[in-house]
Amino acid sequence: MQLTAPAKRTTDANGAIRRTGIRDTDGMAVASFVLGLLGLLVLNVFLGPIAIALAGVALWRGTARRGRALLGLGLGVADLLVLVAFMSADNTMSWSL
Fold this sequence. Notes:
The chain is mainly α. 63% of the residues lie in helices and 8% in strands. A two-stranded antiparallel ribbon has the order 1-2.
């Protein structure tokens, strides 16, 4: 099952190649950044992997917002590192402030 349209290459009347579906990949890059940033504060066990997956798909599909996708990827990894740090500090499988 595919949730978004694939990024396809089409030609316009002048013969120039343009990609369709680029807005989907730009949205994924921005969403991964926002979810990664939000995951540093709450629900990092869920939001971190989602941010990593969205950033990976956006980069794989060739987003125009490459920097935002890379930030989302880094923040998703940071979410999981924060979770591991708090879990090891508390010696539990979860963390709370």
